[in-house]
Amino acid sequence: MLYIVLGIVVVLLTILILGLLLPKKRIVTKQTVYNASVETVYNTVTNNKDWKYRTSIEDLRIVETNGDFEIWEEISQGNTIRFKTKEKRPFTFYSFEMNSNFFQGEWFAEFEPIENGKTRFTATELITYKNPLIRVVGYTFMDLGKFMETYQSELRNKIENASR
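and the corresponding structure tokens:
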């Protein structure tokens, strides 16, 4: 029995040390081009009432609205993440803060009109894990790049379906 307890302690200490060695912040940036106007892309991204095209979200509740700024909660895989609009510059920039039991961070996007009525969309997500143990879990199971790719792909499908 003592060896089992010692084994568990060693595993937990190893995970803790790994968590302390991993960077506290993770940053992912993904860029894509949409065959849609900058107004269409911006309006779709900033419209929290029309979220059902996003397959990773089970529910989205707008908690508070103050003019063009919102506080909302997204539920995904049983976890609730709270978001708060930070800045909106129509058709050029959008950002929000996010907070959950496990991490906090921010997300921002830049919208740039390019040739032939297309839009260059660049999104950046910055995550800070709240403790070293969660950091190990986050680095192991939260593929931020994949999340961003999925979001941009679903956004592409939404925009393309809207233009038909």
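(Above: one complete record from the training split.) The first helix runs from residue 2 to 21.
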